Amino acid sequence: MKIVIRRAVYADAEEMALVETKAHWNDSSITKPQEFRRESYVKLLSGGEDIFVLTADEQIAAVCIVLDCEDEDYSGYADIVEISVLPEMWNLGFARKLVSHTLDESRKKGFKNAYARCLGGTDNSFEEPITRLFTGLGFDVRKSSPDHDGIYEIIFTRVL
After folding, report:
1. Domains with residue ranges and CATH for the chain
2. Over its length of 160 residues, how does the chain's per-residue pLDDT go in tens digits?
3. What is d(CA 31, CA 28) in angstroms, rounded to the nearest whole number?
4. Interatomic CA distance for residues 27 and 121, integer angstroms
5. Phi, psi of 27 (to 5 degrees)
6. Which helix (H) or strand (E) holds 139?
7. What are the backbone dihedrals phi and psi of residue 140, each rounded to the nearest 5 degrees, phi first?
8. Distance between CA 78 and CA 110 in Å, rounded?
9. Burial 30-49 (b: 16+ CB within 10 A, else e)
10. How many whole angstroms separate alpha carbon 4 and alpha carbon 59?
């Protein structure tokens, strides 16, 4: 299998939206249709934002978006806002390779730190793999206290 990591281009928008849709298929909190996702990718690309894709045999298998962090507590951090991998490509190390590449590119761009976050709660099926991914890449983990619904925030930070 030939693996390539590269910056996304406009022509990738539809395929990236499909990857994100399939990756989050069973996540009830994801309510936006695939068309909305495609338009979001086009908007991000037109704004010059960093989107990286990992292709396996020329098919996009994983997508990673990194932006300037908007959280006041993490101002100036590279913010990994999305990492999606096609379900049939899970457990092949693609997320790790793509995030690692994204961190290298963020460092080259001048970022000194990286940040990512996710929500945890009653359905923790994704929490263990995402925590394993980020801690394996040297991120520190902090969890907030749960709210009244049992939802909490998991914050990952790392010096680049």
Report:
1. 3-159 (3.40.630.30)
2. 999 999 999 999 999 999 988 887 766 555 666 788 899 999 999 999 999 999 999 999 999 999 999 999 999 999 999 999 999 999 999 999 999 999 999 999 999 999 999 877 766 667 888 899 999 999 999 988 888 888 888 999 999 9
3. 7
4. 13
5. -95, 110
6. none
7. -90, 150
8. 9
9. eeeeeeebbebbbebbeeee
10. 10
In the beta sheet, which residues pair with residue 78? Answer: 68, 114
Q: How many CB atoms lie within 10 A of CB 53?
A: 21
Dihedral sign from CA coordinates of 121, 91, 3, 87: negative
CA distances from 145 to 109, 153, 154, 155, 159 (A): 34, 8, 10, 12, 24
User: Where do we find the tokens 């695939």?
Assistant: 34
Please report which helix (H) or strand (E) contains residue 112, including its range: none
What's the chain's length in residues? 160
Burial 80-95 (b: 16+ CB within 10 A, else e): bbbbbbbeebeebebb
